Amino acid sequence: MNRSKHLFRADVDRPDPQRRSRLRSGSRFISCPGEWKYDRRVRNGRILLTVVVTLALAATALAQYGGPRGPFHEYPNIPYDGRFTFVRIRYQTAPGGHWYGGWPAWGHGYPLSEQNLMNIMREVTYLAPHVEEVNALAFDDPALFRYPIAYVIEPDWWSMTENEAVAMRTYMQKGGFIIVDDFKPMRRRFPGSGSYDDRLGVTYGSGWSVLETYMKRVMPDARFYDLDATHPIFHSFFEIDDLDVVPQIFSIGGRPVFRGLFEDNDPSKRLQMVVNYNTDVSQFWEWSSFGLRPVSETNEAYKIGVNYVIYGLSH
């Protein structure tokens, strides 16, 4: 019978007449026929293995929150070359909007989220986009007008300037398509009263009202419409017939809400902006590198992203 180095079963299972006396000998773990031998090195080894596994899991989790990434780092933009390049909007982050490791709200998931999405675009379409290279531009940067799609994340932490408001309006009027993602209703509330944020006079990070207020500066007559699965954006590449399949990332619950801003406030015309509210679709793109969410949910999030890009390029 094979024996392990530290823990093994005795070959002979016959009763040992000296077993009782051996147990009185003072040794805590004693080997005799029919007994298990315990080596303290086994316990220490198991503890070490547990620690290693725990640290590995912690490193994976911290990777989502800036730990191993270190301080936030913005990567150099690449010059325009005619190939599709994912553009994330860089904005002045409002007070309280810097997270783990000093990461600004606009950089949540950057650049991994869009790199993963572009990798999917390369696999399922003929777009042949830049995958590793991601550009971060402000709305009032003239270079933005070379790119047809702009992505904005956590807009309720955006301290919008007047120049950005004007440039954003011009961008949409000239045919630019904007994707807004990752924000939700205010969370810190006292029972039977207003929100914690309101009572402290905090307006940033407070959900829909911030974006709606900003859009009144961008387009005073702008009106948002709720979108359902019949809109062409949900059929531009993948057929998404039920928006209930779109995953919910936030622990506060509720269903994701999709809203749109249309040219001339006419839902029959071009969609200029699509908004993912009460969800964070791009976090599924980011987390797909680590397997932190089910494949089924991640697939639906990728379908949404692919459809947005195709719609923005074709309308």
Describe it:
By secondary structure, the chain is an alpha/beta fold. The protein has one domain: Domain of unknown function DUF4159 (Rossmann fold, 3-Layer(aba) Sandwich). Helix content is 30%, strand content 10%. The chain contains eight helices and seven strands; from the N terminus they run H-H-E-H-E-E-H-E-H-H-E-E-E-H-H. A five-stranded mixed beta sheet has the order 3-4-7-6-5. It has a two-stranded parallel sheet with strand order 1-2. Strand 6 and strand 7 form a beta hairpin. Helix 4 packs across helix 6 and helix 7 packs across helix 8. The N terminus is likely disordered.
Rg, Å, rounded: 28 Å
- In spatial order, strands of the major sheet run 3-4-7-6-5
Strand tally is 7
CATH topology, which one?
Answer: Rossmann fold
How many distinct helices? 8
N-end to C-end Cα span: 73 Å
- Shape summary: globular
Beta-strand percentage? Answer: 5-15%
Structural class comes to alpha/beta
State the share of residues found in helices, binned by percent: 25-40%
**Spans where pLDDT lies below 50 across 5 or more residues:** 1-38, 46-68, 189-200
Question: Main sheet?
Answer: 5 strands, mixed
Instruction: Tell me the name of the CATH class.
Output: Alpha Beta
Q: How many domains, as an integer?
A: 1
Could you spell the SSE succession in H and E letters? HHEHEEHEHHEEEHH
pLDDT averaged over residues:
78
Question: CATH-wise, what's the superfamily?
Answer: Domain of unknown function DUF4159
Annotated CATH architecture: 3-Layer(aba) Sandwich
